[in-house]
Request: fold
Amino acid sequence: MSLKIVGADVWLGKERGFEKKQVLIEDGVIADVSDGIAAPAKEVLDGRGKWLIPGVIDAQVHFRDPGHPQKEDLRSGSVACAAGGVTTFLEMPNTHPATTTGALLEDKLEAAAQKSIVNYGFFIGATSDNLDELRRAERACGIKVFMGSSTGDLLVDDQETLERLFAKTDPATVIALHCEDETRVRRRAAEHRGRTDPAVHSVVRDAKSALLATARAVDLAQRHNRRAHILHVSTADEVELLSGRPDAVTAECAPHHLLLDIGDYERLGGLVKMNPSLKTSRDRDALWRGLSTGALDCIATDHAPHTLEEKRRDDIWQVPAGIPAVENSLGLVLAAASRGMCTADEALHWLCTAPAEVYQLEKKGRIEAGFDADLCLFDPERRHTILSENQWTRCRWSPWHETQVEGWPVTTIVGGRVAFQDGRPNLDCRGRRARRAG
Reply:
């Protein structure tokens, strides 16, 4: 199969930016990027007026498959990805059952091969007694450690187990950590149990709980000289800590922490309950600075769907944590760039290229000859209104309902095949496992 894309402004990385180029794809791989390509192609895609960018790599999603397919499964989640210009996702292990063995990891890989229209990778989850499974799970994209409890029952917060994880697992495998101090969170929950307002969630899971756990993770990585990735950083204090991080540590933040703060509880209530919790506007602004200075490396959504019925429960303590975001992140972050929060080149680096670098994904994240043809055509002039009823995620709602943006993805290409175009998915498209280089 061959495809030629002509007329687009092609994004060639943070340093070069956009250039008018033609791109030739052969057998799912970028064969040529140049001013003019004489070689014929079976199909030609007109990109005039559009940006051609690498597909977004969302390195933290929760698709609830297996366990709760009514919220999301690998088919619906992958379609939501394609609708938002995401060509690769890395999925977390807190499904039911949790992905804590090599056999369960293989089950997910087999299911994704049948269901997913975009590329995929899966984390294996750490427990207090599965070290041997972690060491054998070569096909996992990383090891996930919940230092603080969240959705599901995975939790590793005792020092002895953490020391073993950092000392005795494959040094090439990234350890990705949910950093909230479990002891502090439980204590504060007991202290504030009498409150029922949604904002109590940010009082219980406060900035100090995040900082304590992140400092602990950085210390482990530094002492063991071990690759560690701090997930969904949410506080100014963490950004300051990570500004002096060792080379072995990388970090990310999520769109909801970049675009929302505790003031949004009044408007959205339990819809914006997530772990880590929303923080202050000061913390939100610090995350943007952390990205621009390199203290934070990339953006990932932490897409975590629940039903509207669950999210609208009267008792905030019974509302599950998490929001859907995978299909809106590209449009929202580039809209923020247009408002001066960053440049478009920075945004695309954080969304498309840096995640491939953090997880050392082979042939992903760039528009270069030899790289996989995972691409997105983005229309910077298209006016789009995010509506809950139009979401492709199975939970069918968004905290950004009725948000208007200028600029939206219009065509998503996975392995050289169109996976989403003109508002419709190509359900015959199939992604492949994202592989670690080497």
About this structure: The mean pLDDT is 97. The two ends are 27 Å apart (CA to CA). Residues 73 and 365 are 25 Å apart (CA to CA). The domain at 55-358 is CATH 3.20.20.140 (TIM Barrel).
